Amino acid sequence: MSAPVEDRRESWDGPVPVPTGATVPFWAATLEGTLRYQACDCGNRQLYPRAVCTDCGAEDPPFEDSEGVGTIYTYTVCHVPGEPGFADRTPYVVGAIELDEGPRLLALLDADPDDLEIGAAVSVTFWRVSDEAAMPVFVPE
Ligand SMILES: [Zn+2]
Questions:
Q1: CATH code assigned at 116
Q2: Where does the record place the ChsH2 C-terminal OB-fold domain (predicted)?
Q3: How far, in Å, from the CA of 41 to the mean position of ligand 1?
């Protein structure tokens, strides 16, 4: 899977992820348009990346590439910006996205709030916001 990566480094005013520790392989893949999750040998799949498996405690669970598609588990429409850099972006939508592979992540939903519904199919795209990271952003299928 390789999703589009749109360069927003010039215009992005929001928070910028700083890759550290277990998140380094995750953010490196985003620059190539790939969304990765951790798939532990015990069967647990998790996202965001962590140094240990949340189920069995194994260290450094390996990464697998997601197909980048899933459904809206739930979402909220933000009318008051959670970050100063989002002030001129309101209303914006934050969703809990359930990937087809199982893990859920919180991400921006780039869509008109009136067009969204729980359970709807979405796919990932990326906004490059720094030299080190591209944010996963989901759009309706
Ligand atoms: Zn495990």
A1: 2.40.50.840
A2: 65-126
A3: 6
